[in-house]
Amino acid sequence: MFLNDLRRAFPNANMKFNEPLKHYTYTETGGPADVLIFPETAEEIKALVRFANKAHEPVLVLGNSSNVIISDEGVYGVVLMLTEMDYISFEGDEIKAGAGSKIIDVSRQAGDRSLTGLEFACGIPGSTGGAVYMNAGAYGGEISEVLVEIDVVSKAGRFYTISNEDLKLAYRYSDLQESGDIVVEARFKLQAGDYDTIQATMAELTEARESKQPLEYPSCGSVFKRPEGHYTGKLIQEAGLQGYTIGGAQISKKHAGFIINIGGASATDYINMIHFIQETIYKKDNVLLEPEVRILGKRTKYDVVDDGFEHQ
């Protein structure tokens, strides 16, 4: 009944029903969404959220799906994928970027305009909205250093603006992870720089990423947050876990911080591997590894469930 009502209420929306999310995630895993919608504007998101709320249906929000694991059982309710909100504009040293744009594209276009400050993001595959949500960072830089403010739609379907300061940005954290607000646009402020220097820095970072990370395989990127006083990859490597395989999921032999899909992996393989790594490292080093990747969807054998709002 709800899906029929949804289709009638939004006849022009791009909707897919019982759509496998493995076609969209970087791990190439994940079960079906009851309904997958690709909104194009903040107004459409507001209307969809309010409609779902009235029907008491959960809403899950995805961006580029590069740092998520979706349960093999899929996702109840409505999944909003913001990849159609893909725009980037410049005014002097200020940037406006839609939540569905890729932060790597924002970084590269800024570099092409001799703007410095986002070079660190030249290899981050996630969406702009996801980068803000996670306060993404690499090679000594992070989103908090260049973000001015964001426009969001709240869980109640209200549109408003949040400043950098009010987001409480920290290592791989923003207040969005508590509030459930949906990023629809981000605004950044960079500085004028030297074109050749910027391009050289980005080329160096790209080479470092390509040489050290297993980009030839599907993966969700860096799986765990860096524990204080340790390096995750080193802990896993010293535990002799590189190459360890569960189903089609393998701890990368190239970079121990990555779990790759070597063929036919399921989300359950990934989740089982994450728990195996956590248990092994805790027993060996008394260090509890906290996942950076978001585990979402219907209930799993580990009772990992999130039927609220998430953004990645």
TrEMBL record:
Q: Which residues cross the membrane?
A: none
Pathway entry = Cell wall biogenesis; peptidoglycan biosynthesis
Question: Which top EC class is named for this enzyme in its record?
Answer: oxidoreductase
The record's subcellular locations are: Cytoplasm
Q: Which reaction does it catalyse?
A: UDP-N-acetyl-alpha-D-muramate + NADP(+) = UDP-N-acetyl-3-O-(1-carboxyvinyl)-alpha-D-glucosamine + NADPH + H(+)
Please classify the protein's predominant subcellular localization into one broad category: cytoplasm
Q: Give Gene Ontology CC terms.
A: cytosol
Cofactors needed by this protein, per the record, are: FAD
Q: Which GO terms describe its molecular function?
A: FAD binding; UDP-N-acetylmuramate dehydrogenase activity
Q: Where is the active site?
A: 172, 222 (proton donor), 292
**Domain FAD-binding PCMH-type: where?**
28-193
| PROSITE patterns, sorted | FAD_PCMH
In its UniProt record, which GO terms are filed under biological process?
A: cell division; cell wall organization; peptidoglycan biosynthetic process; regulation of cell shape
State its Enzyme Commission number(s): 1.3.1.98
**Keywords of this entry:** Cell cycle, Cell division, Cell shape, Cell wall biogenesis/degradation, Cytoplasm, FAD, Flavoprotein, NADP, Oxidoreductase, Peptidoglycan synthesis
Summarize the protein's role: Cell wall formation.
Q: Which family does it belong to?
A: Belongs to the MurB family.
What HAMAP family does this protein's entry cite?
MurB
Q: What is this protein called in UniProt?
A: UDP-N-acetylenolpyruvoylglucosamine reductase
Task: Report the source organism.
Answer: Aerococcus agrisoli
